[in-house]
Every structure is written in structure tokens, then in C-alpha cells.
Amino acid sequence: MNTFGRHFRVTTFGESHGPALGAVIDGCPAGVTLTETHIQRALDRRRPGQSSLTTPRNEGDRVEILSGVFEEKTLGTPIACIVRNQNQRSADYSALKEVDRPGHADAVWRERYKHRDHRGGGRTSGRETLSRVIGGSIGEAFLERELANFSVVAWVSRVADIEAGQPGMIDRATVDAHPTRCPDAAVNERISARILEAKEKGDSLGGSIDVRVIGVPVGIGEPVFHKLKAVLAGGLASIGAVTGVVWGSPDIDERLQMEGTSFHGDKDVYGGVQGGLANGHPLFLRVLFKPPATLLDHAKGGRHDPCILPRAVPVVESMVSMGLADLYLSFLSLPHRA
What we know:
Blueprint: E1 3-4, E2 9-14, E3 20-26, H1 36-46, E4 63-67, E5 69-70, E6 73-74, E7 79-84, H2 106-113, H3 129-146, E8 151-159, E9 162-163, H4 172-175, H5 185-201, E10 207-214, H6 228-237, E11 242-247, H7 252-255, H8 260-263, E12 273-274, E13 277-278, E14 283-289, H9 296-301, H10 309-332
Antiparallel strand pairs: 1-2, 2-3, 3-7, 4-7, 5-6, 8-9, 8-10, 10-14, 11-14, 12-13
Helix pairs in contact: 1-3, 1-10, 3-10, 6-10
């Protein structure tokens, strides 16, 4: 399936080296203020070539809104957006047409579809995530209209064995102040040096991204199969390099060693969710990323991120916004909301 959501539905399309990628958003209510500039700000935070820590592929990722918006407001009809690829170097992948790269999805895609686009990974490329950022930026615009003080902020909390301290209440400007997107000034330079070292060797690094959401009303989510944590974890797990999602307070690992009488003494330990529903406290979760699979000569010769965490921050925020927009529309349809 290429569609996420039941009420706020985001369908993504396109390949890394095709003419364009994009998204169709269906279910966004009418009257939400939306411009290409709003979406572009989100895409600029994800685009390649931001610093020496990321892939040098030079893409402006300029978004075009094709439908669903008139006079800077949504119409309630499908919103179609595209980003045209401008800097493909498909010839770089000619040698991989019949070779399955270790750690990639080449072999399983070949087995399932019997035909695949080998250029840059095609549909399995991390470039597909720009479509999610389009959907997330529109979901966020809707939620900001509906919910006072709503915000989603993610940041890099660990790269390899370098762990950052937990920040206070921060905003995206603070996160974006350094190319690592880690708000802990004490470890930024160490993280940068470690990523550049891995890049030079043709190696890669994983780590984690933390997310904090405020302004989610009590009761958002559903009690059984579409619990708040299930919808968000499912969306986040669909990001290619994600290997796990952990709910709870930042020190959840230590708290899990407690007895129940101690564990349940602080509602913040639940990460903002109880019984599948938002409990009014800030949502907190940690997303775990494996090291990118492009290594050694392939990494040195191509255009790849040695660590995707800095560019994955807006992707994580987008999946959270898409999931919350979907659950909020479900919440509005409940009988008690009539």
C-alpha cells in the first residue's frame, strides 16, 4: 500500500531517479491556510546537500501545488503536490542493474515484483520521504488551526555511542541551529566529527531521534486497534531505516527496572498515552535508526548520507503530524462531538 491514514489520507508516489515525486492528500478539511511557502519550509529542512554531513546530491526540492488549494486555502478536495527531480545521475547505478546490494531491499523487491528500478533504489530510496514531508506539513497546518499551542518538535538524541542530554522545551529553530540537529551544544562537535569520519571511511552510523508533542487533547486515539501509540508507531516504523519506537519518558529504560508502585507514580512515564488515548500530558517517544546500508566503495563513489538522522528529523515530525491529523478527524466524528 502507498497510502497512510483512514480519514486524513496521504498517498505518495515517485522514484528517486524518475521525473518527480509527490503526494496526494485526501480528507483535509476546507479552509486551512496553505501555501507552497509553508510546504517548502518543511522540505528545505529535509532536502539533500544541506551540509558536509549529508549527501551532496544537489536538489532544490521545489514543491508545486497542482490542486486542492485556492486563494491560499484548502478546498476540501484532494491536494496534489509534486517535486521534480533535477539532479539525477542514473549512470552511477548502471553496474547495480543485476547486482543486489548487501543490506538493501534489492533482492526482496526483485523476488516480489520480478522487476525493479535499480537507479538510486527507486521507490525504496530515502528520497521517497520528501512525499511524507509534504503530507506532514499539510497535516500540521490543519492541526495548528484546530488546536491551541499544538507543536511537534524532534531532535537527534544519539549518534552511535554519543548520547545527548535531554533538553528542556525547545523549538525547531534551536534544533536547526547545528547541522547535526542535536540541541546539546556539548556533544555537537563530537557528533559532527564522528559522522565525517564515517563518511571518509565509507562507513555509516545509526542512533535515535526523540520527539515531543504538546497540545494534543485528552482522548485522541482509539481504545483497541487504532490506539494513539499504535498509529504513530506504525507510521514511524514505515520509515525505511527505523528499527524501533519506544514510548515513555526519556529515562524509560531505567524506569522499566522499577516495581509498579514506583513506576506508576508519575504520569509523564506513560509518554502522554494511557489506554490507547492521549492523557493530556506531552507525548514523548524515541525512534531508533539503523546505520544506512550503503557502505565502502558504493558509499565513496555515490551520493549517500553516512548518517541519515539529521535529515530524518523533519520526516519523523511529518509522520507524527499525519498520524495525529488522522486520529483527530476520527475524534471529531465521534457521537459525543455532534
